[in-house]
Each structure stands twice: as C-alpha cells, then as structure tokens.
Write a structure and sequence with these properties.
Chain A is built from 10 helices and 7 strands. With about 240 residues, chain A is α/β, with parallel strands linked by helices. The first copy, chain A, folds into 2 domains: about 160 residues, SPOUT methyltransferase, trefoil knot domain (Alpha/beta knot); about 60 residues, no CATH class. In chain A, helix 1 packs across helix 2, helix 1 packs parallel to helix 7 and helix 8 packs parallel to helix 10. The interface between A and B is large, with 67 and 67 residues.
Chain lengths: ~240, ~240
C-alpha cells in the first residue's frame, strides 16, 4: 500500500485502520507533508504499521520491489494511458499475480489531486471504483477500505474459500411429514375458529400445504408452531 | 441505510459521503445524539441526503417499509440469533430481493456498541465483513463504504452473471411493519390461549420477532396469516 503525499492525518489513520482490518502490514508513504505525517503517527490508537511505514521521496523508489503496481482513481480529469480495470475485476488479476509469487502495490494519490500523470506512469494498471457519476470522488480512507476489501475478502471467495463466514450453521428444514402434522393442526384451528365456509375446506388445505412449504420452515420452528396451534386448538375446543 | 444512535459527526458525514458515492439517497437515523447529529448536518460540504434524513425513535419504525433488513457487525461478542452471511455473499441475495420489488435496509449500530440484541431481532440477516481476527472492528464510515460497494459496484457484476428473466417472478417479502403487525396479533393469541407464563412474555415476543423474519414470509402469506390469527383471537376472546 502506497500513499503519495497524503495530507489529512485522519485519512492516514483511516488508511492504517483499514489495512489492519484486512490484514495488510506494509505501508509506504511518498513525500508526505511533514507535520501531518507526524501528527498521524503520534495519534492515540495509531496502528503499529504507521510506525513501521517505509518513507521514500519518490514513487519509483516505493514500488521498486513490486511486480504489479496498481494506481487508483477516477477517470474524470484525464484519459488513462494504461489499461483501466473496474475494481471488481481487479481481484482475479491480483490473485493470479500473487499466486505466481508476485508483489502488488496499490497506490493512492493525495486527497486533493489524486495521482499525477507522472505517478501513473509507474502503474501497470489503473483501477477505478465504480461510483455514481454525480459524486465520483471518494474519501481516501473509504477508498482504501473498499479496495482492500476487494483484494482480500472478495479475493477469498473468488478462490472459493468463503472461509470464515462464521456460524454458517443453518438448521435443517422440517420434513414433509412434520409439515403435514403442523398443517393438520392449523386446519383444525381454522375449522374451530370458523375461518371460512365448509366448501372452502379442500382449497384451504391445498393452499396451506403450499404456504408451509414456501416458508421453508426449519425443524425447531415447526415444532414451536405446532405447540402454539395445539394450545390454541385446545383453548377454542373448550 | 439506517444508523442507530451514531455518535461521531465525522462518521455520520463519511456515511453520507459513501452513500452519495454509490448512489444511495435514503438515510434514516434512529435516536441520534442530538448535538452530534446537528453538528453533522451543519458541517461544511455536508451531503444533501443528511438534510433529508428520516429520523425515528425506534429501529422498528425506521425499517417498517422494508422487506429485507440486514444488520451489520462482527460476531466477536455474541452468538447470532439469525442467519449470518459473509458480505461477499450478500450481493446476490440483495440483488434477488430488489429484483422482486423488495426494499432493503442496511443497519449499522453505534460506534461503541454496535447493534444490540434488541436491534438485531428486527433483522432478517446479519452481514459480517470478513476482517482480520487481530483487528476485526472497522471504522463506521469505512464499513458503510465497503457494504455499499458490495451492493452496487459488485452487485452489477452479479446481475450481469445471473441474467434474470422476468419469468421467475417471486412475490415481494412482507415489510418489517407488516411483520410487526402480524407478530402483535400472534402475541395476542398466545396470551389469550395462555400459551406460556406471563414472565415469559418479553422473551416470547423477542423469539417471535426473530422467527417471523426467519420465515421470510411474503406479503400475501403474511396477510393470510394475519387473517387467520385475527379470526382465532376473535374466537378465543369470546
């Protein structure tokens, strides 16, 4: 991750926070504004990776050991001179680069001007976040978060490792038999409550069967519903 | 987009900025901290959508017209009571809900506590951003940006892949408000039927709220169920 001449200490801090969130640790800053950079580094709760950031005077130096340099920005003000990819397309490209042992740099320009034409000349690709044309320009910290999300969180699912989608436990659905038992009790309640005329009975039963299956009710919920309707039936019966 | 008790005006501003970036315009705030909310609204360069934000005292009210309510957060402190999806998986799900004419609410808790158990009981799903276990907790403005990126920028490419035809029309889900009305009548039936002891009432109400959302009941079915339970209530009442 490379920030070129970042200005706002809050944005620098937010960049570091997003990097920590998505498991990145190598930050380089190119020609930062001295006072702002120091302020960001000394902020309460500043990420450790800010302390360890590599500082260079030129972008060339910062990305010297990377095999794929990806600039970020909008196309509002210039015609790109290198291939442009939409951010959602970057994941696959980055994944194959990493798979073959490459190192990727993601480069963000200053809040005010973005990356200059000179900066961009060090980039293999320009990645564009698809934003609304009415308000295309993103806050730096948010743009960083979105890009790192694409490269990691999405990256994993590209690779088919949706992995730690924690507690993916889904309880089993009720069996058809359990649903039919529930349907029978509900039908009993409908009758006891004079829900509809007798000649509707067959139609109602049919609809109820469909309805309960549409709900894709799980086993435990079916049991709960059964308990409630039995109780109701008992109450109406008396 | 719903913010519950947001605190930091900068985060509120960042949320609005990300919404503008990704083309969203409907913001609701639930029980905001008065001074901070006013500060955010009056900030220089504040997005217009902050002026037009809907303000409510409860989350139930804020999401009453939505058919799919998605809470956000981590699983660090609690066990989820509803299905959990990893954010990358949410895009497709949200896309199909929109395709059948539903309205989605994305709900973010306060910076300090996130969403409470009570808040979450109004959510059909909990979406988790896959972050590094070492630093799982994201800044609010950045989390919002990442979620909206997934829903729009990525969403487009999902839609491009799945090529939906108008033929697979699925009726929209019941709105959160319709579900709450149904829940109220069912609760009435439970009471009238002496389903469980009085001291269980709050817990039952909580469970019922979750259960009805788990069912993903559609509008027409919710109406049918409402009719039945009203009828039952009437019958038991007499």
């Amino acid at each position: 991750m490379v920030l070129v001449s970042p200005r706002n200490p809050l944005n620098i801090g937010a960049t570091a926070r997003a990097m920590a969130n998505f498991g990145f640790s190598h930050l380089s800053v190119v020609a930062p504004y001295e006072a702002h950079w120091r302020e960001a580094q000394s902020a309460i709760g500043a990420e450790e990776l800010l302390q360890n950031a590599k500082r260079t005077e030129s972008l060339a130096e910062a990305v010297a050991d990377c095999t794929l340099v990806v600039g970020t920005g909008t196309l509002a003000r210039r015609k790109a001179e290198q291939p442009v990819v939409s951010l959602p397309e970057l994941g696959g490209r980055a994944g194959s680069e990493l798979a073959r042992g490459g190192r990727i740099a993601l480069v963000f320009g200053s809040e005010k001007r973005g990356l200059t034409r000179e900066d961009l000349s060090y980039c293999h690709l320009l990645a564009v976040i698809p934003t609304d044309p009415q308000q295309p320009s993103m806050n730096l910290g948010q743009a960083v978060a979105v890009c790192l999300y694409e490269l990691t969180a999405r990256g994993e699912s590209h690779a088919g490792l949706s992995g730690k989608s924690a507690a993916d436990f889904v309880p089993p659905l009720a069996t058809s038999g359990e649903i039919d038992r529930l349907a029978a009790v509900i039908e009993g309640v409908m009758l006891a409550a004079s829900y509809s005329p007798a000649e509707m009975r067959a139609a109602n039963r049919h609809d109820l069967r469909l309805l309960l299956r549409r709900l894709e009710i799980n086993e435990a919920d079916a049991r709960r519903a059964l308990g409630l309707f039995r109780r109701v039936l008992h109450k109406i019966g008396n």
